[in-house]
């Protein structure tokens, strides 16, 4: 039996009526100057006074209602959920292309559902650089009892900002033993029992390697997919990613280090870049001593790539649906579209910007989804001006919106032309991670793909000077954000939107605008769009 011990969040909701329930959260979002995770002044964003924010604990298909209240004179806010696919309902995706910001002194209610999903996810603020200050937390989506899970081992200043964090925290707490730390994270365990740890990188720039002194970890899940179980000494977790591992308390009753060390950076044991916590055995009277446990060379990209390739889908396990994950495979799919996306840095009007195919996204004042619903996008964006397979000759700004073929298979190749790690996320869908490679991707690279059991996840890493290939099945109509998870890359233009449209107006195909839809931009003084009566809940 695996005991749930919670999440190790390291940083540099959620609805059919058959067996689903409604879960209500009232959140007050505020700036706090008293918590100060380490011993110098550092304002943080709290939710109900908590940093990190409260856990959203739900079960597949539950409806989670989040009433978010912004304190006066605080900040504008939207709140995406990292990995929850918002089935048929991009209105609740919480990014600038789908939602107007919640203004200071007001509130708004998100209603979201982890439809046919299970696993480990996170939420965070999406406006500007708010994520740096907090406002993030964990989402846990549990299996419904009726589902049989196979029994398992059970700009210039901005450009110069944020490359290396000042400190890496574990669950909002400073490194164990560091003189600046006010407190540290500790997990209590009992010898002989097995525990499930959920590990999330909610940072903004740095990948890390996580390990527990003298303990093995069995990988069982990543971002809603059960994985083939592999035993690891350590695991690389890239920005925006989450994993679940099983750890058996099999050692002598003592205290042991839990550490997350940065990738592609030099560090020492006592560096603030090393998140350090303690695994504490009941009855232990032996504190942690000596150096932190050794891990892979932080500059060994080969280790990281090989480990990434070993993370594969468990084809026999049941997940959120009663049928096994392997029912949904990509061995015989016909690709409808291919996007080849180069991420790099360019200068536009002398200003450094992050670009995709030499286009830097420029956020309009009006959310794309709102413009789509009211005026078919007129005056806000032009569909398919963005080059999905070629690179512009001259870097430029653009409101990048491209067509995604409804119920078609999309291949996306992320080409990283930077000398740093990157990671990418697409709202509304999971990525079938079929390939990694060095240098330039070519059509012949497809012969190296793993199409037998590629893991499905919401965020995928792209190594410096390399490429990552994914498939996505576009069965979820809406306006979906495709972005870098590295905050500076995202903030300075490394994103676009995929418009997946179905001409059938049947509300079962896509949800209408919510009745409490916020208006802004060119619609600030307009009456809200008329929503038809809410459709009957979808059967589980």
From TrEMBL:
Keywords: Glycoprotein, Signal. One of its GO terms (molecular function) is copper ion binding. Residues 35-144, 158-283, 386-503 form the Plastocyanin-like domain. One of its GO terms (cellular component) is plasma membrane. Pfam families: Cu-oxidase, Cu-oxidase_2, Cu-oxidase_3. Residues 1-20 form the signal peptide. InterPro entries: Cu-oxidase-like_N, Cu-oxidase_2nd, Cu-oxidase_C, Cu-oxidase_fam, Cupredoxin. Belongs to the multicopper oxidase family. This is Monocopper oxidase-like protein SKU5. It comes from Escallonia herrerae.
């Amino acid at each position: 039996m695996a005991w749930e011990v919670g999440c190790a969040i390291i940083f540099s909701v959620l609805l059919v009526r058959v067996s689903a329930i409604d879960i209500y959260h009232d959140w007050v979002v505020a700036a706090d100057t008293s918590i100060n995770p380490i011993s110098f002044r550092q304002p943080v964003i709290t939710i109900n006074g908590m940093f990190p924010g409260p856990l959203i604990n739900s079960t597949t298909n539950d409806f989670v209602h989040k009433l978010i209240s912004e304190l006066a004179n605080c900040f504008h806010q939207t709140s995406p959920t990292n990995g929850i696919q918002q089935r048929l309902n991009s209105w609740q995706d919480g990014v600038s292309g789908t939602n107007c910001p919640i203004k200071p002194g007001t509130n708004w209610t998100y209603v979201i559902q982890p439809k046919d999903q299970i696993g480990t996810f996170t939420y965070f603020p999406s406006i500007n650089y708010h994520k740096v200050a907090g406002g993030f937390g964990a989402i846990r989506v549990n299996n419904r009892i009726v589902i049989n899970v196979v029994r398992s081992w059970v700009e210039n200043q901005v450009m110069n900002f944020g490359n290396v964090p000042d400190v890496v925290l574990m669950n909002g707490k400073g490194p164990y033993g560091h003189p600046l730390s006010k407190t540290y994270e500790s997990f209590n365990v009992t010898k002989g029992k097995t525990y499930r740890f959920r590990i999330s990188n909610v940072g903004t720039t740095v990948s890390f390697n996580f390990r527990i002194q003298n303990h093995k970890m069995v990988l069982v899940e990543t971002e809603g997919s059960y994985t083939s179980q592999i035993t690891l000494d350590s695991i690389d977790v890239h920005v925006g990613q989450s994993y679940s591992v099983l750890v058996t308390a099999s050692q002598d009753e003592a205290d042991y280090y839990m550490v997350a060390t940065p990738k592609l950076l030099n560090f020492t044991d006592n560096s603030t870049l090393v998140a350090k916590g303690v695994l504490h055995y009941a009855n232990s009277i032996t504190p942690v001593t000596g150096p932190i446990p050794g891990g892979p060379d932080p500059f060994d990209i080969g280790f990281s790539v090989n480990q990434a390739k070993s993370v594969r889908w468990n084809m026999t396990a049941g997940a959120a649906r009663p049928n096994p994950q392997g029912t949904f495979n990509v061995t015989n799919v016909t690709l409808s579209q291919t996007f080849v996306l180069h991420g790099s840095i360019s200068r536009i009007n002398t200003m450094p910007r992050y670009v995709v195919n030499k286009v830097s996204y420029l956020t309009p004042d009006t959310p794309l989804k709102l413009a789509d619903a009211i005026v078919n996008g007129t005056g806000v964006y032009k569909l398919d001006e963005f080059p999905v397979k070629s690179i512009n000759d001259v870097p430029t700004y653009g409101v990048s919106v491209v067509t995604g073929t409804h119920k078609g298979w999309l291949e996306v190749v992320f080409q990283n032309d930077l000398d740093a790690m990157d990671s990418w996320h697409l709202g509304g869908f999971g990525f079938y991670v079929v390939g990694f490679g060095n240098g330039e991707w070519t059509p012949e690279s497809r012969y190296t793909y793993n199409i037998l059991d590629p893991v499905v996840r919401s965020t995928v890493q792209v190594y410096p000077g390399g490429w990552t290939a994914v498939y996505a099945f576009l069965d979820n109509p809406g306006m979906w954000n495709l972005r870098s998870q590295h905050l500076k890359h995202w903030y300075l233009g490394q994103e676009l939107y995929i418009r997946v449209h179905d001409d059938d107006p049947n509300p079962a195909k896509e949800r209408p605008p919510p009745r409490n839809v916020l208006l802004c931009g060119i619609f600030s003084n307009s009456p809200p769009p008329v929503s038809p009566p809410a459709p009957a809940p979808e059967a589980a």
